Amino acid sequence: MEGLTEDSSGEIPPNLLDLQEIPGWQEKGVSQDEPVPFNIRKEAMKEAALSFGARGGLARRTFEIRAEIERRRNYLDKVYDFRQLLIAAPSGLVIEPPIVSESLDALLISNSGTEAAVADTIYNINRNARIVSAARTWRQYLERDWGKVEPPPDILRPRDNEERQYWRELISQGWAEGYKQADEVFEQDLLELNAHFQGMVRYKQLLAKGMITPPYTMMVDRGVSGGGEEMKVGDRAIRMTGLPTLTPRTKEWQPVNP
User: What is the chain's pLDDT, residue by residue, as a tens digit (258 residues)?
Assistant: First the structure.
């Protein structure tokens, strides 16, 4: 991919050709004509090449994905603005709202198929509110770095033309698997990002309708605390005294004006 720049480690992950043409192994002090346990070596080299290729493909594709999302960072900052969802708390802290999931037209069959329950909508609080110092960002979900792609030991590298061809084929196979895995990981990360963001938005919507309760906090001003080797001045303790809960009392629900 054109325009690739260095990652956080200061290196661009190797490409497929780099892995295929890695310097070979020259057995020092031993004639190439001497018999060697070919099957054992071939199997070990196969595992090394597949692993090397997979790690290389994973790292390279992940690097390409990071470069692509970095070009879209301004758009992502606007779409996934978690800051607007935070709830103010005492002493400049903030509360991250719950993540609420929604299932439509739910069906549950039980008791060996003799009973069934259906619901138009099911809401679940998958993770409740918590005190945080800052909002999360989309980068925490979508940015990954698998580290440097370490090559296999010299002894497991190809030493002649026949092994080189075998090595290239295995590297290509592993590379394809790693490349595919990187796309799958990104898709899962994106799904999680959307689920968490939409879950917090859903909480805001349910709160406006009176279908869920807000979080409650309490601050205790402890003034000056400690002593000896550590003393705190203006010490304040903030504690959540009530977590949001879903409200089944329909009479308390309120319609939201469009």
Answer: 334 445 555 678 888 887 888 777 665 554 555 555 667 888 999 999 999 999 999 999 999 999 999 999 999 999 999 999 999 988 888 999 999 999 998 888 888 888 898 889 999 999 999 999 899 999 999 999 888 999 999 888 888 888 899 999 999 999 999 999 999 999 999 999 999 999 999 999 999 999 999 999 988 888 888 888 888 898 888 899 999 999 999 888 987 665
pTM for this structure?
0.81
C-beta separation of 23 from 157 below 8 A: yes
What are 215's two structure tokens? 């979080």
Strand order in the sheet with 94-96: 87-88, 94-96, 130-132
Q: Extract the tokens encoding 234.
A: 């203006």
- The secondary structure of residue 80, as a DSSP letter, is T
Nearest to 175 by CA among 60, 63, 65: 60
d(CA 221, CA 212): 29
